[in-house]
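User: Sequence recovery, please. Input:
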């Protein structure tokens, strides 16, 4: 059984928060996603059970190796799809929103082709990194 879109969104959120904060708490996830504390607590328990996150005695949330791999994969898709949509003339906010919708459903093969095309079209204009 694969990872659900909801799990990917939570892991990506934790990853994004970790880029600017050294200590992530459940309330940070609540604020970022706009979800209630009870909802986030339930999902965090599930993420711990699946070994995607750990929570220390101070309630700081950390991605495990497997959680980080998933989070980085989804974040890369989000960033590249957003940039591609913007390059096609889609307004930034809409590009972000649409990238979030499609990042979960693309096959690895399709995303690899999109990524290759994007970098071929934008060679020299931007770094080949996805800002990690």
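Assistant: Recovered sequence (132 residues):
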């Amino acid at each position: 059984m694969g990872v659900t879109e909801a799990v990917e969104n939570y892991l990506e959120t934790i990853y994004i928060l970790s880029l600017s904060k050294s200590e992530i708490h459940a309330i940070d996830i609540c604020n970022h996603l706009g979800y209630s504390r009870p909802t986030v607590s339930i999902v965090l328990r599930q993420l711990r059970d699946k070994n995607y996150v750990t929570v220390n005695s101070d309630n700081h949330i950390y991605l495990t190796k497997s959680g980080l791999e998933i989070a980085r994969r989804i974040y890369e898709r989000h960033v590249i799809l957003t940039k591609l949509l913007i390059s096609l003339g889609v307004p930034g906010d809409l590009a972000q929103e649409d990238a979030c919708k499609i990042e979960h459903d693309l096959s690895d093969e399709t995303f690899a082709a999109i990524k290759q095309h994007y970098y071929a079209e934008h060679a020299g204009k931007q770094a080949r990194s996805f800002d990690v």
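DSSP finds six helices and two strands in the chain.
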